[in-house]
Amino acid sequence: MKTLLSVIALALLFTVGPSLSAQDGDLTQKTSLWIGGHYTTFSDYTKKVGEYKIGLDEFMPEFKVNYLGVGTDNIFRLDGHFYDRYNIDGVADVTIADQFSFNVQYRSLIHQLGQDRLEYMSTREYFHNTGSYGGKILTHEVLDPQADYNVHRQEILSEMSVLLSQKRNVRFYAAHRTILTDGHVQSIAGTHCFSCHVTSRTAEVQNNTHELEAGLQADINPDVTVGYEFDYRFFEPQAPDQVARFDVAKHPVHGGAGAEFSSRQVFDDTSVVVNRIPKSEKVGNKVRVKGNLGEKTRFATSLGYNRVENKYTEIYSGTWHGAVNLSTILSPRSRLVIKATGLRTKGTDDYRIDLPVYREGRPGPASSRPSFDYTRLSTLDRADARASAEFIHRLNPRMILAFLGGYERIDRYNYPADEDYVTSRLIGQGKLRYRQGLRFSGWARYRFEKTSDPFVAERGLFEARGREALGRDLTDMPAPWTFYYEREALHYQPITTSPTDAHEVELRGYFNPNPKVSLNLGLLFHYDKNGDLDSLDVKRTKFTPTLGLNLTPNPKWVLSTGYTMNHVTSRGPITVALFDG
Amino acid sequence: MSVDSIAYVKHFGSLYTMEDYTTTSHNVFVNANYVASEKVNLFGTVGFTKATAELDEIVMPAVTTEIENSLSHQDFTFEEAHTYSDLDYTILRFTLGGEYTIAPNVVWTADFDYADLTDDQPWVYGDESGSYFVVRSGVRFDF
What we know:
- The structure holds two protein chains of two kinds.
- Chain A is built from two helices and 29 strands.
- Chain A has helices at residues 2-23, 258-262, and strands at 28-44, 58-70, 74-82, 88-96, 100-113, 123-127, 132-142, 149-165, 170-191, 197-221, 224-237, 242-246, 270-274, 280-293, 297-310, 316-331, 334-347, 351-353, 374-376, 382-396, 399-412, 421-436, 440-452, 462-463, 491-492, 501-514, 517-530, 538-554, 557-577.
- In chain A, strand 22 (421-436) and strand 23 (440-452) form a beta hairpin.
- Helices cover 5% and strands 62% of the residues of chain A.
- Chain A is globular, with a radius of gyration of 31 Å.
- By secondary structure, chain B is mostly beta strands.
- Chain B is rod-shaped and about 90 Å long.
- At the A-B interface, strand 1, strand 24 and strand 29 of A face strand 1, strand 4 and strand 5 of B.
């Protein structure tokens, strides 16, 4: 692939460039070729400090090429950089007047990944009054501790545009992108007792993504342009499936009660494909209309439909989406910008989940062997509508004032369960820009968002306490501990990190006291909280000051310095379940 | 069957507390470019980044007498758990380089790049402290 691209790039350089020159004698060309090499040496752990380097002590040849040819009505550009066998960039593009443009880009990088040692997944129940250990154990096992994890990513993007007819400005455009990733990553799986035994192994990565976009647009009259666009995306993992071994179910300490344990597991003493990435396909169609409504108003609209499908399971979702943008001049000093978007997503109809019968073949009444089969409703089902209006007014030659108001609403149709869940949000923003010639410019902005019923995890974070909380008569049951699963019913307190109130202030200033000095200062402050979570005081503050200074004391020296700080505090709940052993 | 004769599952629920998680990063850099002569151009960069993260100590509220009596064999203090979330990275980076014009349209370049990362809170991936040094040289042709 790299060789092919190199040949294409050189062919373009030595054929298209001269051909442009031949077309027009008024051609300005500039070429730069750098040939050299580099030697890299590492000390200690390489994968953090050299996250995007090969990570080996070695000498590598290196070269760069830059070409720019500018004619009367055409431009040809070629830039390429070969750093090492994994870090390569290249772009070539040609534009001929307004009639034809084509560009191709190639990017390659390597990403080094560390290995999670899983040492934090190790604990065991302990009775401090007797000094003995209990049966609740969490263990980990890294099966491939010497593995070298990294992923090589390559991307090839090509785009073209052709003017088919000048009469109606009929234009065809198309783009294709390929993303190839290959390498090895860490794969983690938890075996039974829910996660009593966590294992890690090496998984091969080989993913191919192809994206195609093609469209046609034309002016149906001097004020209106219409267009149609087709999108296609295909993702396919080609690496062998990753398989994890699920242990033989048994008591974690004395190894007995195997049948009782295994009858409560989905997987037992078997190998199962884990961490599988689905092969997927997306097909989209969209129509666009844009133009002028009179002399003072411009508009742009679109309407489309996308369908995304998991090719392994045939689960799919379909989305209708549309957008309207309107910009109108209210007066010589005022402008109004209105934006609205909407979408409606519908997932696969009911999807049946079949699970083994709980405690199948074990003693006890039929009620102690319930079925946990269920029908999964798509949580993608939703309608999402957003609208905003921004009024922009020039107060005087130095100041511009803008106010923005917005409203957003999301209707989730199957969450929780088969109920509706509606989130709505009011947005307000004010912004003042100031410019004093070339010496000073800056702006100040304040924004707030008020959200009603932000998305929450309805399942509950805490468990109710009390000996009779379950309220289940266990008189004729084989053992009370077979009903541990019913603790799900005791969960309460929905939880979220989404705020109900958010406030943000941002200040920016750019000072140029003289041609030798430029200074920029910035400050961002963000505060949000959720007031809906009963006694939980979930909130977050963010504080980000920035400073930049550029100095050119004389033609020989150029100095620049900068400082950025980012300080974030998040408050959230931490909970532990209480067991009696 | 009377209510008193029914055997119920024991259940003690859960405890919770609110804690702050704080992340802070500082990044500062200085770049300099100096045209020493018509043939010599020098440049250099110094960069420093420090990033930390920490969770406040987890202090659970007192449990009720009923629960305390039943679970007297358990300990609900978490004096060390918050330290598992600590992160502390420091990255120091130096770059120094120059260009020398050998002949019209022919320039020799050389530069050095050094980066050192110190991990003062090794945990999930082990001690990630490490450094690299890159020396690079070549010739540029402009035409």
